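Note to self: user wants both folds in one dump. Writing first protein now.
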Amino acid sequence: MAVIEPKYTVSGNVEVLVGVGDGILIVDEDGVQRVDGEAVQGPVQKMVVSWDGKYLAIFTHDGRILVTDINFKGVLLEYNCESALPPEQLAWCGLDSVLLYWDDTPLLMVGPRGDPVHYFYDEPLLLIPECDGVRILLNTSLEFLQRVPDSTVSIFKIGSTSPAALLYDALDHFDRRSAKADENLRLIQSSLPEAVEACIDAAGHEFDVSRQRTLLRAASYGQAFCSTFQRDRIQEMCKTLRVLNAVRDPEIGIPLSINQYKLLTPSVLIARLINAHRHLLALRISEYVGMNQEVVIMHWACSKITASLAIPDATLLEILLDKLKLCRGISYAAVAAHADKNGRRKLAAMLVEHEPRSSKQVPLLLSIGEEDTALMKATESGDSDLVYLVLFHIWQKRPPLEFFGMIQARPLPRDLFISYARRDTLSEKLKRSYKGQDMVHHLDVFALVLVAIELLVVIYLIMVVKMCYKHEFLKDFFLSTGQLQEVAFLLWKESWELGKNPMASKGSPLHGPRIKLIDKAQHLFAETKEHTFESKAAEEHAKLLRIQHELEVSTKQAIFVDSSISDTIRTCIVLGNHRAAMKVKTEFKVSEKRWYWLKVFALATIRDWEALEKFSKEKRPPIGYRPFVEACIDADEKGEALKYIPKLADLRERAEAYARIGMAKEAADAASQAKDGELLGRLKLTFAQNAAASSLFDTLRDRLSFQVSGIVVCIFFCLFYGRKASVVGTFMKRNRDCRLSVTDNKFVSVALVQVV
């Protein structure tokens, strides 16, 4: 059986190759597929996939080793091992060869051309495949077997005349002060960049430090004569080799090749070092390669806390701070959390004091039981979310009186708590629940109604419990601080919330508790001199609710509660209960003008014109007869309106009223008596479609303008002959009944100024 990783499969899923019978099955999450082809002939005893997922090595039942691509399109290599016994281990050595190991036999390596190589060992071994070779783990040693890199072959092959070999040889002649060094450089002048690159690459694959140094010196020597080569290439390789040589040290024991290092990445290497508690080396490597040192220092600090149980907290704090300050922006809160986890709460509290970020500091203070400090830090940060976090935590942990004492002396937490307890009322939550029903608008209507009712019942019960708890807690807080008016406002608010109960119909027994809550609020308001208005308003609100509740009970109609005084009076009149309307008027001292307005429009609403006429004759209406006219016109009763239009004292109002019911002649007569030119112009526009009416208004306006012109002529006559202004004034008094338009008034005023 062999496993192919998802990154090497077309489907992106894990695939398992299973040798069954005379073939191979490919198993993935989508199903099972049988492999057909020449590559698989007969039972398979062992399989192994190359590290890049492109090739598959198969050991068959008859002792053959086959190498094929992962798609089984053809056999790339076939070798007869002369033994049908399956090997103990089958492994790839890079991508070039396959290793087979049997007990008590040499290690067999089959190369890419089918050439076998045997390696003899006197003790058992374990093969560990790598990307560029294989590790051979023995009882006493570790060996690494890999194909010799091409760059190394080109330099050190016997009789090699490659540019890299000549450059390496030129360095040797240069060290011996031989002129042949210049001759070698001239020979490879055109291939010098490739020679330098080969020396650098060969140095990277070398494990011997002295040979690395020699190859890098050869590359540097060639680079001096090559202007086109990248100057930082040697520096990068030197950096990489210093890291590799450091971890290859026997005391560290991580003999990585350069290909393994690049595949592993420096961050993973540092993680392995700190897990091996090699913090100093990990710190130096991270600093050398320019990586963040925070991970190393934090791991060291946590390990130090775990291993230093006998060291006092103060001493250990100094040791930790001496190292933690080396890294800017390090999380002291994470180290403090580890200290708390190890039972050193005092050390954790001292460490968290050095955390500059409140968002990390405050939650940890809460976790270690430092609520007072957490509230202080959250308040200093000015972050309302952090303050709420602390408040909710303390609210659950501390008794109410202790909680009140903690927030009373701090304005920001106190105000935020009050704001939270006041907002998010039941009505707002019910509105949101109504909006949430839009998501299911596509359901059947009857099913929607049932679901909505059940949802509202559940939500209401939950929200009532939660809101009552919040309000009761807030009331306790205000009572503990002597803020009686705030308690009264909360009681009044609760009464409104009861009124918005969607499950309780109007006129229900819930109105009894509502009135009691308002009475309590009124008594609390009365205890403070500054809230006399609120006390009186609460008293009248309770009185109005009682009257409205009685009206709903007597009329058996849920239409009174929570309506205004005016609406209550209007509804009583509409229902014909004039005695109840008069009672409400008397109880709440409704003014006569307001009473007349309400009754006029209420009677017009029910079209009781006889009662309206009788009401208008009881006494002279304090609001005049204009509301009677408007009520009749709004009800489209022109005949009833004619009963009241002649009673209008203002000629302009009378003319406009006639115009509204379409009586042009009467409107013209009233406007003519008023002698108002502007009014005549407006009425003309009103009857623009009536030619006769328009002509009549033009005639009256011209007549009025002629009278105005006479006045103007008189003024200029007096001005021309030097008459006194008193003469003009006398003339104006005689013609005071002549009303002027705005334009004429301005013209005459200018003339009068000139006379004076």
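First done. Writing the second protein, which came from a different request thread.
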Amino acid sequence: MTNLNTPVTELFGIGDKIAKILQKVGITTVKNLLENYPRTYRQYRAVSASGGEIGDWVVIRGAVSKVNSRHTAHTTTQLATLTDKNGKVIILRWFNMPFLVRSITQNCQYNVLGQVTEFANRRQLVSPQLHKLSNLELDKPETDLYLPIYRAINTLKPGIIRHKMADIIANLPTLTETLPSSILQKHNLISRDAAIRNIHFPNNMESLELAIRRLSWEELFELQLDNLILSELHKKNRKTTPLNYDHQLLNTFLKNLPFTPTNAQLKAIKQITNDITKSTAMRRLLQGEVGSGKTLVAAAAALSVYAAGKKTLILAPTTILAEQLCNNITELLKGHTTCELYTSQHKQTLTSDILVGTHALLRIKDKLKNIGLVIVDEQHRFGVEDREALTKISPTPHLLMMTATPIPRSLAMTVFHYLDITRLDELPQGRLPVKTYLVGADKRKDAYHWIQTAIKKHNQVFIVTPLIEISEEKEETPLKSVKELSNTLTNYFPNVTIDILHGKMKEQEKIAKLQAFRNGAVQILVATSMIEVGIDIPNANIMIIENAERFGLAQLHQLRGRVGRGGEQGYCLLFSESKSDKTRARLSYFVAETNGEKLAEYDMTNRGPGELYGTQQSGFFNLKVGNLWDKQMLEETYAAAKLYMTKKTRT
């Protein structure tokens, strides 16, 4: 019988090839697979054969006629009709699916799912899905259906993942409950078994909402427990050697900078350098808006530690960001101290005063000696194990965590309760606010003409697209869609070098493409939202965001912060063809608002039914469904986690 620990290799229909693909992304058991939640859902409205507007996704119940297959030079077309209970008819059309001629059972009822289109003034469904109804299903009323849409995994398309998931859910025994019954009752949470089944295949919107709430609550509860445990570890390991540094060296460094630090940066540097002189190890979180100058603060802290005779370890979540941090700190501290990069691809001597790397550095933490300070950039992107590893470095170093993500008060008082928080609330002198515009379909050509002029003036352009997500919803190959956009842009910009960057590339390939863009060899970089955090290209002053309505406002804010970093005016153009009043109002709010915290709160307040929180947060703490902007749930889970820990300690 299938259970949570069953290896995926033992599941029916999953051969060696699919198993290897899943294993590459850490899916080795049924539990891993079940926690690969849908990215979104497509609602099919239950209508008659004559119902639904053009473009609507619908489900129609009726009898399907015999399929006729027509051959042309390079393709085959399969045609049939669906007749509903009222005798209304709609055309069904497929391409290159001749097996359907033998697959349709006559005199049987089907649910037919598809998008209503029109051809030669006749309504039709193109490439619809067919579901033959059992006698039990025929007795049930016609209702809307919710189709889960998963992220593609390598060459596994969303449809394949959905079919495998349906088989697993159908054969899954009742799942063991993971939360105490007292918590379920107090907070009105459904069982884990019901939540897992309904988040994958909800019967209606209410069941989906209940599933999201339960899994969100549990995810935040586990996060609170993890951080309470980390808090205890930090308390036990807080004693350290005070670092007496050369104040003159730091003052000279700050005085000779080619720019004037902001008051917020100077205040942060003062707080950190004061912390490291104490016998209790620093535990501080530095939060600053995109472009607020966190790297300078980190460099000043590392210089002070060097002046006290100790080394600094700096961790970044990706090789790209680690390399960029190393280059920026090397430039800032040139002539003062040494800095080197250590990743799985760059393994150095470990002799420099400042070591910058990815989590690969944690694997060799026992070899690292004389560490006085650890700086973690975007620390929420590191796993619990990585964060626990930091507490085991001996002797205990000071710890500075950095993030560009806004930290609401409720988050500071719960998840980050054991950290002192410093906020950089000023932009560096001369940094101009990015000008943001909402561009409709009628203005696209004008925008492209303006971009052509800007490129001639040596500006570079990011074009960010959610095409991978769109292609997942269409069950197409994601990378093909990105390449098609690149080809389309080539027609608009014939004499411009255009390149593509996406998360499925190997790390070295990503670095090479970014370097070509940074060097000016590429003028337009078409990318997925992977560029939102940390990437710094001084000459990139224009950010184009296609289908902007598909991004969370916090994500859009991070993307907007990637341009105008070299002192020139930055521009962010939101391309959206949506005619929804709600969507236009949401994007217009973004155009006018520059405060990241307010933007995140707006999305939280205006969240749509059935929308998964985690998909809008760009991997904050690697949450899948939980939302760190849900003040009530944060407070509930924090109180519950503290009570749980207290009871556990007593027993």
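Dump finished. Worth passing along: The longest strand covers residues 109-119.
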